[in-house]
Amino acid sequence: MFCNTIRQYGAFRSGFCTNASVALDTAFSRSRLESCLENIKKVKLGTTQPAKPDSEHRRSSILIPLCTSNQGKPSILFTLRSNRLPRHRGYVCFPGGMEHVDDIDPVHTALRETEEELGIKSEKVEVVGAFPTFYNPRDKLTMTVVVAFLGEGRDIDLAADLNVNDSEVQLAFLRTLEELCEPTNLRYTQFRHPRGDYAMPVFLTGQFRVWGLTAMVLNVFLRTLVPDVYHHEVRCAVLPKKLYM
Fold it and tell me: What cofactor requirement does the entry state (predicted)?
């Protein structure tokens, strides 16, 4: 059951000090990203044990698209799902989807889905690595989160570099790491459940709100990528980690 309040943490001072700005500016260095992905292996994401035999459960992949914008600022690309879709219409998310029978591996699934949704050819995407695959019992599927660079070493131009498939995506937009880590943009949504109340992180990104699975994946990524800058503490009880990230 949804508790119809989006709560804000206590008063925060907006803006970042010089050291924090440097940490954000260098966040997408190869060494920082490799360290981030190594540390994510220590984070429990859902459960690694599906309820069904391996041959029966569904598989999916999503891609966290890293890029630069606003003259070299590290940024992340998001999509707004089409209102024509049967599920999760109008949600902010990362590109991705279900595995197809001819997909080679989870990375291939993420790249294919990104090309289908945004028109970005796989050869123009530089894969950095992936989260450990985890099982999401709520949606009854496994998920692999792939991390990759877009833009070929320059600021991405949404109009020139993307060919958005409007049957799946309404639009794509960018947010800098600074905006995503800004304390005044951080919220949480509280839910009620028979096994105990729990909360999910929420990010305010201008006119759009990032929440649900996308926010949980983003939360884990930022916590391990820029732990000295990103502080998003969820202040309420949570369900067992085997059910949620």
Answer: Mg(2+); Mn(2+)
Per the domain annotation, does 129 fall within a domain? yes
What range does the domain containing 76 cover? 24-179
The pTM for the full model equals 0.85
Residue 103 inside a domain? The answer is yes
Q: How many domains is the chain built from?
A: 1
Neighbours of 41 (CB within 10 A): 10
Residue 240 has pLDDT above 70, yes or no: no
Cα separation, 181 vs 24, whole angstroms = 9
Q: Is 70 left (phi over 0), alpha (psi -120 to 50) or beta?
A: left
Q: What CA–CA distance (Å, rounded) separates 233 from 70?
A: 28
Domain contains 99 = yes
Listed in sequence order, the DSSP H helices in 137-233 are 158-161, 177-181, 212-225
Please tell me the distance from the alpha carbon of residue 113 to that of residue 19, in angstroms, as a whole number: 37
Phi then psi for 129, rounded to 5 degrees? 170, -165
Enter the tokens of residue 136: 């999401």
